[in-house]
Amino acid sequence: MSTPTPIRGATPQTALPYTEQFERLKAGLPGSGLDWVDALREGGASAFAVNGFPTVKNEAWRYTNLRPLEKVVFEPAEPRSDAPGFDVLPTVRAAGTSATRLVFVDGRFRHDLSSAAGLPNGVEVAGLADRLAGDPDWIAGRLGRLVDVDANPLAALNTAFLGDGAVLRIGRGVEVAEPIELVYVTLGREDRATVFHPRTLIVAEPMSRAVVVEHHVGYGSGVTLANHVVEVDVAEGATLHHYKVQRESGTAFHLSHGAVRIGKDACYDSFILTVGARLSRNEVRAELAGTGGTCRLNGAYMVRGQQHVDTSTFIDHAQPHCGSREVYKGAIDDSARAVFQGKILVRRGAQKTDGHQLNRALLLSDTAEIDSKPELEIYADDVKCSHGATAGELADEQLFYLRARGIPKDEARGLLIGAFLAEAIEEIPEDTVRENFQALVAGWLAAR
Amino acid sequence: MLEIKNLHATVDGKEILKGIDLTIGSGEVHAIMGPNGSGKSTLSYVLAGREGYEVTEGSVTYNGMDLLTLEPEERAAEGVFLAFQYPVEIPGVANTTFLKYALNAMRKRRGEPELDALQFLKLIREKTKALNMSDDMLKRAVNVGFSGGEKKRNETLQMAVLQPRFAILDETDSGLDIDALRIVADGVNALRGADRSMLVITHYQRLLEYIVPDRVHVLAHGRIQRSGGKELALELEEKGYREFGVDEAA
């Protein structure tokens, strides 16, 4: 064999439709022709072409098998002007209050559904496509900076197709009291499977403070793949509260790769509530890149039927005097399955690190399953790190106590599950968001 | 009110109750005394309907109903109340929330209107005051971080709120000092009435000085060995349970 193997020949079979899509569509994507954008996309495309979809042989994907996703060829979602299937967009606000809310339908920013009322000076919110078309310079050095496409195939795929999403810039010293809401609506199509790759960039400049809430909702019965990448830069002394609730429909695949950088004395406080999707994965990689930083990755999930939910977090203590806290709780019913992989790395020199991780799962049926893998890797000697993982059932004596007081069995179970999840939800310091999430939990329990 | 006939029950395949006969009339307070392991708690769990306590023979008729066919919550709605020997801690559920759920679930089952927040608060205030309980105890999670005395007072509060027709008090005196015992006993005595019966289960005679029973039964080896008036309790205090083949100081 004297002819060299063409690079395309090395591409895994399942990746081929997407590399072909990329070649077909790249010239028409927003910002195409800008050198840095083209280079970013080509980098993503070639990384995905080499690796394809991750398999269970990949340690980071050991418990989440993407085979059901590989069996379907997802077509890129087309722009649409309709928004059928929903009347009321989700919000954490009280009705009638002014809102900063960016709405995306099948991955595309929708001016007609969005508003940016009452933002203070120094805060910029925009759709990524608009930004690429109109004012790309500021994002040029920032987009893609925190994501390693070679190590993360789905982030690579997102990068290849990046074109729309949200760009938030909280200017130096600016405090935004009201939450900024991002609403990602998945509609899909009945006649074919569709994919979109939203990209969210959040930059909290030094000494700023903001609350960002992501809603991911789905309607309809089309098969969809939302392949998100979220890049978050919390600069020196800034505080970012970043909350997410995912309640897509039962035919949806929801994959999200979060890359977070936390600067000196900065605080990143996050919570992810997962209720929806057939298969979902939230991967978050957070780097404590300056001394005195704080990272809070909390969450809760409630799954039933055949749902699969994967939470994979990596907290990198790269500098001393940083704290991290992670509290995850989940309720797993029917034949649903949950995965929790939480790694904390404390690098040499990251003295006085204070890391705490807890993940607890409640198994509500004999066929429910949790795979839990906490991992501590510590190279410094003066640190305080702990982790705990438990999986259990509802306690019989508690159930009997409630029933003996007249509370019917199902209601008693709901009360106990709600109490179990409440411990995680209470980690949210923002009242409006916490109460909204509590109501969502109550709604899930009532629908059991 | 309650008629227990030849009741046999097993736990984990082991027979604990070996033929209990007991009849309690309306408005009567009966005491069951017995040494450890005699089956006192088993009897209370069987009457309240706890899973894992299997009735193998006999019957329990409660106000004309076959009690044993009812779910625990149905028994509660029919007015059966078990004051637990070891009240269960329920983290994450506030005491008031729990009480409100319990009261309204039972009212609903009986076809009575549920109480709104205001009506409920008024009722609770009145009952907690009588039991010398703080508002703080209402806000805290059910029994979490409560002292032994607080837990028993909490059981008494639930009883006062739910107004059962037949209350089983399982070792209500255990872990109580004399002051707490008095408060709890006062709470229980306040509930005595012509249409409310009680079964007081205890190891010691002390409680019966405060909650004076109409009848006293001695339970040993899974059977009622002897029945009598309240003076039987004093006799047991003196002689212990040796007479019933149990070598233990009472």
Automatic annotation (TrEMBL), chain A:
The gene is sufD. Residues 18-181 form the SUF system FeS cluster assembly SufBD N-terminal domain. This is Fe-S cluster assembly protein SufD. InterPro entries: Fe-S_cluster_assembly_SufBD, SUF_FeS_clus_asmbl_SufBD_core, SUF_FeS_clus_asmbl_SufBD_sf, SUF_FeS_clus_asmbl_SufD, SufBD_N. PANTHER family: PROTEIN ABCI7, CHLOROPLASTIC. Residues 193-420 form the SUF system FeS cluster assembly SufBD core domain. Belongs to the iron-sulfur cluster assembly SufBD family. It comes from the Bacteria. The lineage of its organism: Bacteria, Pseudomonadati, Pseudomonadota, Alphaproteobacteria, Rhodospirillales.
UniProtKB/TrEMBL annotation, chain B:
SUPFAM superfamilies: P-loop containing nucleoside triphosphate hydrolases. The keyword Nucleotide-binding applies. Keywords: ATP-binding, Nucleotide-binding. It comes from the Bacteria. Residues 2-246 form the ABC transporter domain. InterPro entries: AAA+_ATPase, ABC_transporter-like_ATP-bd, FeS-cluster_ATPase_SufC, P-loop_NTPase. Belongs to the ABC transporter superfamily. Ycf16 family. This is Fe-S cluster assembly ATPase SufC. It comes from Azospirillum oleiclasticum.
